[in-house]
TrEMBL record:
Annotated Basic and acidic residues bias: 81-94
Region (Disordered): 66-94
Protein name: Putative zinc-finger domain-containing protein
Classification via InterPro entries: Anti_sigma_zinc_sf, Znf_put
């Protein structure tokens, strides 16, 4: 119990750098309830992190619209195969 409370306290007191990581992760995966609460409460008062989240959402939408047939963001006809392969390898390593 104490361990979970410490973890929650740490998350609720993250600096912007930690919150930006949670914001980024929230776009790709489901966060725990405490992580969601931490980043959402931070966004209430932090203009910079709200702006960062908006920028990520705009970028994600733009990349999605530019996606090619193979499903990689931005992998339209002008993207070299070598770059596509490198992106695939890095995504696979995650």
């Amino acid at each position: 119990m104490v361990r979970r409370l410490r973890h929650a306290w740490r998350l609720l007191n993250l600096p912007c750098e930690g919150i930006s990581e949670l914001v980024s992760r929230s776009l790709d995966e489901r966060l725990s309830p405490v992580e969601r609460a931490a980043y959402r409460s931070h966004l209430v008062y932090c203009v910079a992190c709200r702006r960062y989240r908006r920028q990520l959402l705009v970028l994600r939408e733009a990349l999605g619209r530019a996606g090619g047939r193979d499903g990689l963001p931005g992998s339209g006809p002008g993207m070299p195969e070598e770059l596509k392969d490198r992106i695939r390898r890095q995504l696979k390593d995650r």
